[in-house]
Amino acid sequence: MTGSIVRRAMPQSERREVKYVVRAPDSNNRGRWVTVGVAFERKNGEDGLNIKLNTLPVGQWDGTLILLPPLAAESEMPADGA
Fold first, then answer.
1. Based on the number of CB atoms within 10 Å of its own CB, is 18 exposed (0-12), middle (13-18) or buried (19 or more)?
2. What span, in angstroms and rounded, lies between the C-alpha atoms of 19 and 34?
3. Structural domain of 30
4. What is the per-residue pLDDT across 51-73, written as a single tens digit (0 to 9) for each?
5. Count of domains forming the chain
């Protein structure tokens, strides 16, 4: 299956609420940030966050990421990245 992406569907009971969206600066548009993933609380209740990156910035990226509360439309994003 070359070129295909297979995603494991999480049962509804295992899905977690997105607490933050992960953003990186857009190297092509100064002052603009793009969403590259999501962050959610750990399922075992321990302190910390799990972060799921859907893409990585390239080019002049300096390694900076920020976590921001999701906007209404972004809060609908599934935590499993599907």
1. buried
2. 17
3. 16-70
4. 999 998 888 888 899 999 988 76
5. 1
